[in-house]
Amino acid sequence: MRSYDAVVIGAGQVGESLAIEFARAGLQTVLVDDAEHGGTCTCCGSSKAMLASANVARLARRAAHFGIETGSVEVDFSKVQLRRLSVMDGLRTQAVQALEDTAGLIVLKGEAQFQKAESLVVRETGDDPVELQAARIFINTGARPALPDLPGLSDVPYLTSSSAMDLEQLPDDLLVLGGSYLGVELGQMFRRFGSRVSIIERQSQLLPREDRDIAAAVAENLREDGVGVFLETEAIGAATDSGGGVKVKARTPFGERALTGSHLLIVAGHEPNTRGLNLGAAGIDVDDRGYIKVNERLETSARGVYALGAVNGGPAFAHVAYDDFRVVRANVLDNGHATITRLTCPYTAFLDPQLGRIGLTETQAREQGRQVKVAKLPMNRVARAVELNESGGLMKVIVDSGTQRILGAAVLGVDSREIIAIFQIAMMADMPYTALRDSMFAHPTLVGSLDNLFAALHH
User: From the candidates 263, 443, 458, 459, which is the catalytic residue?
Assistant: First the structure.
């Protein structure tokens, strides 16, 4: 039994950074991972690298709108993949170098399993098991794509958000099962590469967590790209067709129908990577979905054991994982009293145009019984967006009628993530919306349109 000050399980998202911080602070630290360093986060990096290529393809095709003649635009998918691999190799090289340069940090490649709350056994690849004991253990194993209970799915070839990144050839006709943020992102991406794409969503709108007007604008943008959007369409079976493709049997408002494609992409949410950890032996409680329960300090039900990132069931965003990292670092290394903050958690769906969101939706605010004022501004009334020929989408803000505070906002438009940051700062500072309305911003900028947005407020 080897004793250490800290053991970090899982290198993805923030595991590497946390282990490095502990080791640099003088703690005897072990990082355990059963994948390549940074492996849990590679899907995010891979998809963003490919999305960048897809958006360049779209811009090149629209060059004539700016008076630029480019001729025919062709996508070389093999080169897109080479660029993605180059980006990911660069990130991995940096991560591995940082680990190797950290004195006193031990890295074990293998699977970890709890024996008790303070002890683990690690089965290293090709070596005998290693027993570890530590005063503090940090679980950062992330989440993996979940699969729906769909009859016939096990008998057909299918892709997940992870495996789709490794395709060697562009799909001719892609069926995307699930209209979530990730399903919409990937569907639009493959369409811009040249695939025919159909998105199948059982709810009455895409992005079920968003307000209907925002979801409808997203669907309109996708249809303009040539993406087929099938709403209120529930997949009830899958099979291979005679041509070697995939056939999805679906129930629609107009009866059953069959949708066929060359490839099937499953986007059905995620599930926690806790399999094999033997959490019960450590007395670590999980919720009904299998995610590890934590308090506001990210402590689990087992003394000395913490859970960070997607494995604890919080919003599955990298920036949330880094906020978890902030909390743990402050409390463990600086003896602080930091807690997680979720009230102003922003996020961006990397569609094109992007969807930036923060706080409550209008639907959520009204369900809570709040008296609200709502303002909308189409992007075609934002001068900077028109100049960039990016006039699709809209801005929307929800304000408390009594306190005049911003409760939430959604921006579907170019550089929406930057505009959302302005709303976030105002919310963090507890400023009334009038502070933004009456501010002087540079012109022409996207933020400079906020006065016009707030001028449209009504009950």
Answer: 443
